[in-house]
Write a structure and sequence with these properties.
The complex is a heterodimer. By secondary structure, chain A is mainly alpha-helical. Helix content of chain A is about 55%, strand content about 0%. The chains are: A mainly alpha, B alpha/beta.
Amino acid sequence: MQTKDEILEQIKVSLAGLFELDPAQITLAARLNEDLEIDSIDAVDLLDGLRRQTGRKISAEDFRSVRTVGDLVEAIYKLVQA
Amino acid sequence: MEQRETYLWRIFATGACFTLFGLGGLSLGLFVFPAMMLLPGGPVRRRARMRSLVQRALRLFVRISNGVRVISYEFRGSERLGRPGQLIIANHPSLLDVVFIVAFTPAPCCIVKSAMFRNPFTRRVVRAAGYISNSPTDEMIHGAAAALRSGDSLVMFPEGTRTRPGRPLQFHRGAASVAVHAAEVLTPVYVRCEPLLLPKFVPWYRVPPRRPHFTLEVGQDIDLAAYRGLPPPKASRLLNAWLQAHFTERLGTSGGYNAASGS
């Protein structure tokens, strides 16, 4: 079972790799769109990456309300709990 | 300067062409499509027949519009359209661009406005033909990539909507993203229309002072090798910027039509 901290670390690695971001920018409060410039097209690549990493079926529906990195951690935490 | 009767004729003929287009879509959806559903074969063959029907219908529509002198056109290099896994991207000055490209590409897949899946005139046809809705974004990208991987050719307009007259071209990243993920071949089509017909924000009956002439030119395939090894978000940003600059250079800053000749 992954803790939220582990999930955050995993997200930092994938975001930094995909979008060439400085890991220090990737905080729980960071807004994906406004602060990290991740748009709806990037979100498709991000979810594809998460599907590969977690090996789970992730539906885009579960992520419609995600706005911040913190929301993303919560959404993934819920999925791995389920 | 053209005679007044000719001008009035073009207004009438333009309206008639619109009506023909709407009635054509409706009758394909209401009568021809249900009849085709009765033919043998699974959804794949049915879809291929529907696309071929759409193509013939649009080609006929182009011939009629040309014949009644609403427009004139030339299409250079159309024999290079319709290869397996080919992503065709074009600028979008006029409503007729997609009509031309689909009419001259063998059985392509298209991305269409989600509204066309609700419009009673078009929805049966776009469903049966297996076209892809432009929203939500994730379904569009996955649908487009799947179509290309299955060997379809696919038409996309990176501007997402018609060019705003007088504004520089503004490409969105969706088409570039689909290209780096799934295109076997990426081929540009440069569309020019002088004077402009059916741009955004102009009612249909305000026909241009001269008969509009469309020039569609199929460009050289764009080499994607340099983008393949990069993470997709970076690759699609770089490719999109390159494509926008490339189309702007090919078309001039006016984005597919000559503003001076339109006034």
